[in-house]
Amino acid sequence: MNLTGAISKRSLDHMTRGSLIRAMFERGRLLKEQVGAANVHDYSLGNPFNEPPPALVQAAQRMWADPRPGMHRYMSNVGFDDVREQIAASLNARHGLTHPLNKNHVIMSCGAAGALNVVLKGVLDPGDEVLVPRPYFVEYDFYVDNHNGVINPVETDANFLPDLNKLEAAIGPRTRVILIDSPNNPTGVIYPESFLRSLDELITRAEEKFGHYIYLLSDEPYAGLAYDGVTVPSVLKNVRHSIVGTSHSKDLGLAGERIGYIAFSPRIDDVQQLFNACALHTRTLGFINAPAVMQRVVAEFQGEVAGLADYEARRNLLYQELRGMGYQLVKPAGAFYMFPESPIPDDGIFISEALKRNLLAVPGYAFAGPGYFRLSFAERTLEDIARSLPVFRELATQYGLRGWV
Ligand SMILES: Cc1ncc(COP(=O)(O)O)c(C=O)c1O
């Protein structure tokens, strides 16, 4: 008997749309088998290269060897009280928050992805809209769809900054969330404080018009990875109705440990109702609570970043060289991505040409940003980057880019 319906139509749709980066990854794996890893220039994946700080590993070992009684049991869904208190205190101190957070504004999560899903589940009714500046991290489509929301991409300017007029025009009666990610994946852009202040005013106007909360949901796994001594402006400080979803996947190199948190602005009048809903959804979505040992470990390393200087050196080398060859790109201010313009309008064709030379990148259309391509330098050492430069140069020559090298 030929049966159909092994998986839902929604899963089929997600698998089709989510297959591109996966396909690149598989392609890279095969290529590495065929020609050797050193001959494949793999700029496809955003896997953090940095190892956690040695002191963090030691702290984790200590905790496993001598846990507090009951440490590995179920706990409150929101996480340990003292850990949440420590994170709130760190946020207050690092951002100089005059409306300080306490433990009742922090929920521990399974990474940033877990945090975003919990929040979206807490605030979206079916058909509610989430505005997101384009280009954006592909997984947002799935997170929003998980909770029956509708994603609505909004154009950005030539520097990938959201256009406030377009953002305001896009807000309608069903808009519940504006979702941002700064430093940004895929562009590396950091949104300035003045932008956040304008966004706060814009949200207040829209809330008065439509009569319900509109949240700025800030996805911040890259907040610690800012270059040139820059500090990423605080959303909690500048936007009254803001919620942060973040993790230590990238700044502490703990992506596999699934540890992060949600932080709610105390200036949301109904913050306790929102907190309680998200606490519930930590359970209803099957997370139950964030990993116990990792909660205690990261509490002691708030504000620390592993490998920042390495990432910055890679950013400097790759940016300088690509500009010199004539590629058009915005200098990434943070994260470990670059989003250069494709030398030809069809980024898919450009990526295929790069692939022929064993250079792997992701076409911009996978981020709703056609005409560009994304390079992740997370796993590329300076030597790897240097080895790949002749390939970028060949492509530049093939497409007639005019550089100075
Ligand atoms: C923009 C963005 N948000 C969220 C995530 C997911 O982060 P986590 O692994 O902490 O869940 C990623 C991972 O690459 C990301 O790039």
UniProtKB/TrEMBL annotation:
Instruction: One Pfam family, please name it.
Output: Aminotran_1_2
The identity of this protein, by name, is Aminotransferase class I/classII large domain-containing protein
| Domain named Aminotransferase class I/classII large: residues | 46-387
An annotated Gene Ontology molecular function: pyridoxal phosphate binding
Lineage, highest ranks first: Bacteria, Bacillati, Saganbacteria
Q: From which domain of life does this come?
A: Bacteria
